[in-house]
Amino acid sequence: SEAEKTFQRFAVLGDSSSSGAEINNKNFSKLCQDCGITDGKTVTSTDVDTVFNKVKAKDAGTITFQRFTEAMKDLSQKRFKEKSPDQGLEDIFKLMEGKNPATTGGFYQAAVASAMDQHTDTRKYTGSHEEPLDYIGKGITGQKETTDNSEYGRSCKGAATYDKKKQKRK
């Protein structure tokens, strides 16, 4: 069936040695997310994890398609409350038809790009960082020396004596 094909595509995701006969919790959650079974309101990621742990064997980390069908029946009761378990399961399988795992690289690249944009987009700068301090003419850095050499030392006691002492040494 179409649901079983979708199950197999998600079961082998990230595991080249997998035959596609069993799916782990991570790929099960991804399947529910990518196929629109989780909606964030009636079916959440917590519900998905709970149902997975309920149908799997105690010592197992994966479930077969048969147990997967049981899990989907449980989730269909949460998602489609007004329908019978069998009708809800059919509706869940319709959501799964023809679905493939979404590429994981796209999310990571988008997240990195977004993080980098925060630092390089000058429209988001505020306050003292609004205009870059550079040699182009914005700000005073690079245009002239800003240190004050008029005093000798830290206090005013030796003010204006630096140049005099320098001349005496010559």
TrEMBL record:
An example molecular function term from Gene Ontology annotations: tubulin binding
Superkingdom, taxonomy of origin: Eukaryota
Principal place of residence: cytoplasm
GO BP term, pick one: positive regulation of protein polymerization
Localization of this protein: Cytoplasm
Keyword set includes Cytoplasm: yes
N-terminal signal peptide: none
SUPFAM superfamilies in UniProt: EF-hand (SSF47473)
Composition bias, Basic and acidic residues: 122-132
Protein's UniProt keywords contain Ribosomal protein: no
Cellular component GO terms, alphabetical: cytoplasm; microtubule
InterPro entries attached to this UniProt entry: EF-hand-dom_pair, TPP/p25
Region (Disordered): 122-170
Family per record: Belongs to the TPPP family.
Name of the featured protein: Tubulin polymerization promoting protein family member 2
Species the sequence originates in: Otolemur garnettii
Gene: LOC100965568
